[in-house]
Every structure is written in C-alpha cells, then in structure tokens.
Amino acid sequence: MNNCLFEVVDQPIVIESIIKKVENRNAGAITTFIGTVREITGEKRTIYLEYQAYNQWLKKC
Predict the structure, then answer these.
(1) Residue 41: band (very low, low, confident or very high) from pLDDT cuts 50, 70, 90
(2) pTM (2 decimals)?
(3) 3-state secondary structure of 45
(4) Are residues 38 and 58 in contact, defined by beta-carbon separation less than 8 angstroms?
(5) Residue 12: helix, strand or coil by DSSP?
(6) In the chain, what are the domain boundaries?
(7) Are 8 and 60 in contact (CB under 8 A)?
(8) Sorting pLDDT into bands at 50, 70 and 90, what band is 39?
(9) Pairing with 22, which of 14, 33, 47, 57 sits 20 to 30 Å away (CA)?
(10) Residue of 10 and 59 predicted with greater confidence
(11) Distance CA 9, CA 19 (A)
(12) What is the Cα–Cα distance from 24 to 54, expressed in whole angstroms?
C-alpha cells in the first residue's frame, strides 16, 4: 500500500478507486463521505464554489 495520506487531483474522484487504495483484510471498516452544497444558507444563495490547491509544493505519491 502507498504511504501517501492525501493526493491533489484535477479530475473527478471515483470513490471505488479510493476505497481500493485503502482496503485491508485487517481493517474493520472503511468510511467515506460525499457531500453536497446547499443552495440557500439563511437568505444567501450559493452561486459557485472556488477551490485552490498548490500542487507544486506537495510530494508526489
């Protein structure tokens, strides 16, 4: 198994491939979370999300 604890990607994440990376016969469970964004918070509407990552500073896995 790879020792990297995280990875920055620029493509959609396929959850099944992530699960395969951490599967272990000795593990009791694997937990994943897939979230969504609410459209309205209070009286404010969510128009867009913006993410930033600086991949050049990360160790390549």
Answers:
(1) very high
(2) 0.53
(3) strand
(4) no
(5) coil
(6) 1-61
(7) no
(8) very high
(9) 57
(10) 10
(11) 16
(12) 31
User: Which amino acid makes up residue 24?
Assistant: N
Q: What is the length of the chain? A: 61
One-letter identity of residue 56? Q
* Spatial distance between the Cα atoms of 50 and 53, rounded to a whole number of angstroms: 10
Residue type, 13: I
* 46 close to 40: Cβ distance less than 8 angstroms: yes
Does residue 1 have a pLDDT over 60?
Answer: no
Residues 17, 56: Cα–Cα separation, whole Å: 24
Model pLDDT for residues 6-31, shown as the tens digit of each residue: 777 778 889 999 899 889 999 889 99
Helix (H), strand (E), coil (C) string for 13-40: CCHHHHHHHHCCCCCCCCCCCCCCCCCE
